[in-house]
Amino acid sequence: MEVLQDRFGTSDEAELLSDSICAGAAGASREAVAEGAGASDEDDEAAGLYEHFAITADKGQSLLRLDKFLTAHMMHCSRNRIQAAADSGNILVNGVPAKSSYKVKPFDRIQVVLPYPKTEYEIVPEDIPLTIPYEDDDIVLVDKPAGMVVHPGVGNHSGTLVNAMSWHLRTLPMFSEGNTRAGLVHRIDKNTSGLLVMAKNEQALARLGKQFFDHSIQRRYVALVWGNFEEDEGTITGNIGRSPRERQKMYVFADGSDGKWAVTHWRVLRRFGYVTLVECRLETGRTHQIRVHMAWIGHPLFNDERYGGDRILKGTTFSKYRQFIENCFATMPRHALHARLLGFEHPTTHEQVSFESELPADFKALLAKWESYSATAQATHGE
């Protein structure tokens, strides 16, 4: 029986790891493990999953339910928690999400995956101010500022949302010092602002995770993109996977040869001529989905360095216009994307709830500049 020997060295380490996973193996959006592997910890949109526990069944393994198999091999992990993890899509057999009732066969490769990387350091609670628009006994909504990393990772061991939330909810078991999961269900990019939901107990974690797995969560973003659109609304479809040439970028595989199926619905909110304000509704939740889909159709997000939006793509060649764009980049020195709306079924009351976040100050200031520029252009040229 192979239990993490190649990645974590000893069976003792595997036992400690299984204990950690047992504490949090529920709740994540549905993605392949490869989506998370190799990604920048500070820059993952919503979805990549990371392997926390893996085991390969022996050649003599008799048919056995998956939940029973893992209960026998993951120390201190109850069957109920393993079943919750399977319901949330966090247990893969040969790379595919499996149900608790699946019968394990010889040489099956079983993985437990979670929406945050395995860490080799404790998460230390930090007293960092947070904007919390809603909180009850089961969930907490956070309006994350741009520039804050969601979970500690390489180069970001402190100052993250999880560090802050571990302080805010330090009296709860799920947020005790050193606990790596801390109620995390999904993520947004470091430089994307807006709403995230976090669970405060095991039941809420599992039920929210199941909704992300089923793609039943409502997620709407506001983005400023380069260029104008002929239509007022549309849908972008195309598999998204990691770029074969630049591993820090995602890529659209139009022929479906790689990546995961992704769907983004968009509609125009305001036209400024050279840029357009759009609302994007996610049907799936792939890494960098909005950013890569918009770039793919020729409308990169304004000031998105990774996907080519940090240079003038539309407009005039006049120096005055170039200076205007530089001022815009300085006003909002990040990609223009905000997670505006989050809707889901409350994990305890089962009521449909929806939360909205106002645009942050830098986004409002950027739009004000474009409003002024557009009004001046119309008055001057009758555009």
Can you walk through the features of this model?
Strand 12 and strand 13 (250-253) form a beta hairpin. With 383 residues, the protein is α+β, with helices and mostly antiparallel strands. The termini are far apart. 25% of the residues lie in helices and 23% in strands. It has nine helices and 17 strands. Helix 3 (66-73) packs across helix 4. Strands 7, 8, 9, 10, 11, 14, 15, 16 and 17 form a nine-stranded mixed β-sheet that branches. The chain has a four-stranded antiparallel β-sheet with strand order 1-6-3-4. Strands 2-5 form a two-stranded antiparallel ribbon. It has two domains: 5-114, RNA-binding S4 domain (Structural Genomics Hypothetical 15.5 Kd Protein In mrcA-pckA Intergenic Region, Chain A); 218-381, Pseudouridine synthase, CATH 3.30.2350. It has helices at 5-8, 11-24, 66-73, 79-87, 161-168, 202-213, 289-296, 319-331, 361-381; strands spanning 50-56, 64-65, 91-93, 96-97, 103-104, 109-114, 134-135, 139-144, 193-199, 218-226, 233-237, 239-242, 250-253, 263-271, 275-282, 337-345, 352-356.
